[in-house]
Amino acid sequence: MTPKADSLPPACPSRPPRAYRGVSQEERRAERRRRLIAAAIEVYGGQGYRQSPVKAVCAAAGLTERYFYESFGNSEELLLAAYGAAIEELVSDMTQAARTAGEDRPRRAHAMLHAYFTALQRKPPAARLILVEIRGVSQVAADAYTETLRGVARMVGDIFAADGEKVHELFALGVVGGISQIALQWIQQGYAPPIEELIGIALRLGSGWLNPR
Q1: What's the pTM value of the predicted model, to 2 decimals?
Q2: If residue 138 lies in a helix (H) or strand (E), which one and from where to where?
Q3: Residue 154 in contact with residue 169, Cβ under 8 Å?
Q4: What is the secondary structure of 100-118 as a DSSP string?
Q5: Phi/psi zone of residue 190: left (φ > 0), alpha (ψ -120 to 50 degrees), beta?
Q6: How confident is the model at residue 1 (pLDDT cuts 50, 70, 90)?
């Protein structure tokens, strides 16, 4: 015999996850994810993505593999997350440099390029992850790399467009892609020549933005 609804005891309200030392489960999970991403930048950029099993990244993060699968389905998901984090930091450095440099376009371009090359030199694993390791992994990774180039090209085009000027997307993409290739060769040559010489080369490549007709 099924009891009537009004005769059933009241349902116990669901309890939120218990906090540990004042930190919620969601915050602890987010922190573990951040640690895995930071470790992936160092491991994938230092040892190579294909040479780095999940266990190596977990060891660098100080976590067990159980926590890896808490946040990521596989290594490629972590690679893409690490790539996104490294790009976000790099773009932040560049846009901050542009703001600090003021409205003078040549000065702004120099500041952004200096921030770009300095960041790559300061963090070699992140540089290799951004310029080397993301390539050739899969179509998904290739698409992420291409979309990042397009996004940076749009950002730089907006920063350097003169009043009322519309920078052609392909021109912007060509300049940003060319500078990326310069950076790739630079890191493979052991960060030679010096940054100021490298900036001069890159400025010539992007001179169309600085001297619009």
Answers
A1: 0.85
A2: none
A3: yes
A4: HH-S-HHHHHHHHHHHHHH
A5: left
A6: very low
Residue 6 is classified by DSSP as: G
Confidence at residue 209, expressed as pLDDT on a 0 to 100 scale: 61
What does the block give as tokens for 135? Answer: 């390539």
Q: What is the spatial distance between Cα 83 and Cα 200, in angstroms, rounded to a whole number?
A: 27
The whole-angstrom distance between residue 45's C-alpha and the CA centroid of its chain comes to 12
- CA atoms of 81 and 180, how far apart (whole Å): 20
- State yes or no: pLDDT of 143 exceeds 80: yes
Please, what is the end-to-end C-alpha distance for the chain in angstroms? 88
| Residue 49 token pair | 């993505």
Q: Which domains are present in the chain? A: 80-210 (1.10.357.10)
Q: Residues 67-108: pLDDT tens digits?
A: 999 999 999 999 999 999 999 999 999 999 999 998 888 899
Is the previous residue joined to 106 through a cis bond, with omega within 30 degrees of 0?
no
Taking alpha carbons only, the member of 56, 59, 53 closest to residue 75 is 53
Neighbour tally for 10: CB within 10 Å: 5
Residue 165 to residue 155: CA distance in whole angstroms: 14
